[in-house]
Amino acid sequence: MKPEQAERFFIEELFGQSQEKGFATKEKLDLVDKLAGDASTRRYYRLFTEKTSYVVCLDNPQTDMSVPHAFVSKQEFLKKAGVRVPDVLDAQLSRGYILEEDLGDVTFLTHLARISDPKEEMRLYQKVVEQLLTLHRLPRTAIESSGLFNLAFDHEKYMQEMDFTFKFFFGHFLKYTDEEGIALVRGEFDTICQRLAKQPMVLTHRDFHSRNIMVKGEELIFIDFQDARWGIPQYDLVSLLEDCYYQISPENHDRLKRLYFEQLPASAHGQGSWETFCEFYDDMLLQRVFKAVGSFSYIYATRQDARYLKYIGYAMEKIRCTLMSRPRYQKLRQQLFGIYYAS
Question: 37 near 45, Cβ under 8 Å?
Fold first, then answer.
C-alpha cells in the first residue's frame, strides 16, 4: 500500500472515532483530499462529507501529554481571549491527529488582489489591525499564568536571526564571505537589536503577514501562531505593514500605523511619544525585513525554490529607504549596500 493511501485510511479511521464521540454523527465521509503543506512536517487533508468539509492536520504524535501541545494549547488560549483562530473540533494528540474547521483556500494576500480601491484596502487592513490589537492588549498576568509563552525576542534571538541572514543571504545568495565586512554590518545590527531588546513587550504572533491570515466570508482568521512569543508591539505591526509580499498604499500605511499607536494603551508600548514609537518601528523594520531576506535566501539555498527570490530586491530597497531616513543609520547603509550593490 502506498504511504499516502495508508494515511488516508488512517484519517478515515480517526474521523470515524470523532463521530463515535458525537461529532458529525449523521455525516457520511465522501472524499479525503491531500492539501499542499507548509515547510514543517505537518500534513494536511480536506475531508468532504455530503454536508460540509473539514481539515485534518497530521503531525508527529505527542509522546509526553504533560507538555502543552504547541498548536492546540495556544489555539484554546487565543480563542478564549477573543482572537479569531481556527476552531479545533477534535484531537488525538498521541496519534498526531487534529480535526479543524475548514477555512478555505483564500489568504488575505490573494483576497487583496480582488479589491477595487484604496478605501477597500483600508477597510480590510483596519479589521486586521483591530484584531491584532486584541492580541496585543491581552493582560500580562493572563499570558504568564497560562504557562504557554515562555520565549521572547531578546537580544540573543534577534541576533540569531541576523546571523541566519548573514549565512544564507551573504554567504549563499551573494557569495560574500569577507569576514571583516560582515563584522562591520553585524556590529551595526547588534546596536539596533540591543535597543529593541530593552523595550516593553506584548504577546506577538511572531509570523504575522498576509499569507498567515485566512479570509472566510467576512472573517479574517489568524493561522500559524504556534510559535507566538513575547516581543515589542512593533514586531507584528512591521510584519503586517512592511510585508514583502504586498505594498500598501502610502496613505493607508501611515493611517494604519497611527491607528495602531493611538489604540494600543501606552502601558503596552511604553514608548511615550509618537516620534519615539516611530524610531523603534524603524529599528524593528530593519531587523524584521532583513530576517525575511534571510528566509527567502534560505529557501532557495536549501530547496532550490526560486519563487521567493523576487521579493529580495523589494525588501532590500525597503531597508535602504528606511536607512536613508535617519542619520544614525548612515554607517549601516553605506556598509550594507556597499556589499549588496557590488555583488
Answer: no
